[in-house]
Amino acid sequence: AGMNGTAIGNFACVIFNVSFMNCTWHVGRTATEDTQYFLYWRPLENEDITECQNYIKDTCGRHIGCRFQNVTIENNYAYFLVNGSRSGQSIQELLLMNSISGYIIVEKLTPPLNVTVNCTEASHSCSIWWQPPRTSHVTKKSCFKYEIVIENK
């Protein structure tokens, strides 16, 4: 429910450098300057729900995102809740979310490490191998797809 037009839009989170996560949202289209939003989340099913510790703010001082450190997400599970208040009146629960597969959370991967190229002139062939990137939550090696571009100088 909630006050018409004050609910947030475009909620999305990006994990980068393995342990940092930024979540952002757009303020509701009819939200006044004194509308404030609060993000709560629970990274693991059995943990307590906690409020964001480090909000990102717009020029009016409204919360439009959150910066997280040392993020651990297991089994593609994360539960988010954004609620808000305007003129001291509560705007109801605006968002309830779950799952990385739903693209609420996207991870920007670090590049592959130790790329090794071994070419043999006799067979006109090259072998290329590398270490997959570290990630915050993807455990299956099959999740990665790499594109190799070979430039012939």
From TrEMBL:
Pfam families: IL6Ra-bind. Residues 10-92 form the Type I cytokine receptor cytokine-binding domain. InterPro entries: FN3_sf, Ig-like_fold, Short_hematopoietin_rcpt_2_CS, TypeI_recpt_CBD. Keywords: Glycoprotein, Membrane, Receptor, Signal, Transmembrane, Transmembrane helix. Its main location: membrane. It is a single-pass type I membrane protein. It is found in: Membrane. It comes from Rhodinocichla rosea. This is CSF2R factor. It comes from the Eukaryota. SUPFAM superfamilies: Fibronectin type III. One of its GO terms (cellular component) is external side of plasma membrane. GO terms for molecular function: cytokine receptor activity.
